[in-house]
Amino acid sequence: MLDDVVKRSIPFPKDSKILIFGGGFTGQHIAEIARSLGAEVLCSRRNLESKGADFEYDSNKKFIKSKKILNGVTHVISCIPPLPNGEDPVLINLGKEFLEMSLKWVGYLSTTGVYGDCQGNWVSENDTPRPKQLRSIRRLACEQAWEDTGLPIQILRLPGIYGPGRSTLDAYKKKSIKAVDKAGQVFSRIHIDDIAGAIIHLINLYAQGKCPKIINLADNLPASNLEVMEYAANLLGTELPLIEPFEIASQEMSPMALSFWLENRKISNKILCKSMGYSLIHPDYKSGLKDCLLKTTEQKTKYSN
Ligand SMILES: NC(=O)c1ccc[n+]([C@@H]2O[C@H](COP(=O)([O-])OP(=O)(O)OC[C@H]3O[C@@H](n4cnc5c(N)ncnc54)[C@H](OP(=O)(O)O)[C@@H]3O)[C@@H](O)[C@H]2O)c1
């Protein structure tokens, strides 16, 4: 809940200016909360006409129209996925400029896909990433590129992101839901309130010298898709669709969807919640989905064009 995140967070110091590259679903939410905490925030989209676009940034165009926006920037957050050639879409054009700025904190939103398949076991930041999917191999390359800059970087590894307007509840409403049963398969998740809340918490700790390089942002309860769907169906007062075994459902999955089902892991949040003392707003999908139900109507289409 936006108000909850704002109430529990320490305001940004005066003159904080945050640039968010990739003002999509997560970027816009972080922006909204950071603004409520007193920071000046500018979000990029590839098209200035898109909702929530404060400036245009498209890595293919190789420049941002006015470099004036870089003046006085204290924090940078990148929410843009890797380019097909594995390069980072922000660093390729602005890496040098960042080095000349007095940045206090840089956050790179990565994915837990970099861990590869863990056969359903818990995995933490101390485990060596073993990405198998091409997109995760590219992601790890981008993490490395950000680390190599020497900027005050934190890499935030995210599992499935959900929130109002993008959750299992919406999949029911769009009738795009499939109930697939694969024994032992679980997925980890994180609600966008906790992405924003954790980032603000980490920025504060970074300023106090607590600065681990890599942090998983995940809730406490990895769960199967069927459990989540069943809970969402109850919230909506609807029925779970017919359950299909994975062996059959997989024949009609896109290669992208299939790739998610071929990896199984539980993401540990101990560094975030124990070492860094972050308290989750939505510790599990039940709390998160209840929040989505409350907010979906008003936020569903807010930034979806
Ligand atoms: N969705 C998930 O479940 C999930 C899970 C783990 C990690 N992640 C990663 O976490 C980050 C945020 O996720 P999200 O779901 O909030 O993403 P999103 O809504 O898809 O937003 C991605 C943003 O990146 C921008 N973008 C994409 N390619 C670009 C390019 N070549 N040049 C400039 N901008 C570009 C998009 O621009 P436009 O606004 O113009 O479209 C958009 O603002 C992403 O890196 C994503 O891969 C996502």
Structural account:
The protein has 305 residues and is α/β, with parallel strands linked by helices. 36% of the residues lie in helices and 16% in strands. It has helices at residues 2-8, 25-36, 91-100, 134-148, 168-173, 192-207, 225-236, 246-249, 255-261, 270-275, 285-299, and strands at residues 17-21, 40-45, 55-56, 75-78, 105-111, 122-123, 153-158, 160-162, 179-181, 189-191, 214-216, 243-245, 266-267. A seven-stranded parallel beta sheet has the order 3-2-1-4-5-7-11, with helices on both faces. Strands 6-13 form a two-stranded parallel ribbon. It has a two-stranded parallel ribbon with strand order 8-10. Helix 1 (2-8) crosses helix 2, helix 2 crosses helix 6 (192-207) and helix 7 (225-236) packs across helix 11. The longest helix is centred in the middle third of the chain and has 16 residues, at 192-207. The protein is globular. The structure holds NADP nicotinamide-adenine-dinucleotide phosphate. NADP nicotinamide-adenine-dinucleotide phosphate (NAP) binds at residues 22-27, 45-47, 50, 57-60, 79-81, 89, 109, 111, 158, 160-161.
- What is the CATH architecture term? 3-Layer(aba) Sandwich
User: What's the count of strands?
Assistant: 13
What letter string, H or E per element, gives the SSE order?
HEHEEEHEEHEEHEEHEHEHHEHH
In the sheet with the most strands, the strands line up as 3-2-1-4-5-7-11
List the helices and strands and how they pair.
Layout: H1 2-8, E1 17-21, H2 25-36, E2 40-45, E3 55-56, E4 75-78, H3 91-100, E5 105-111, E6 122-123, H4 134-148, E7 153-158, E8 160-162, H5 168-173, E9 179-181, E10 189-191, H6 192-207, E11 214-216, H7 225-236, E12 243-245, H8 246-249, H9 255-261, E13 266-267, H10 270-275, H11 285-299
Parallel strand pairs: 1-2, 1-4, 2-3, 4-5, 5-7, 6-13, 7-11, 8-10, 9-12
Helix pairs in contact: 1-2, 2-6, 7-11
The structure holds NADP nicotinamide-adenine-dinucleotide phosphate.
NADP nicotinamide-adenine-dinucleotide phosphate (NAP) binds next to helix 2, strand 5 and strand 8.
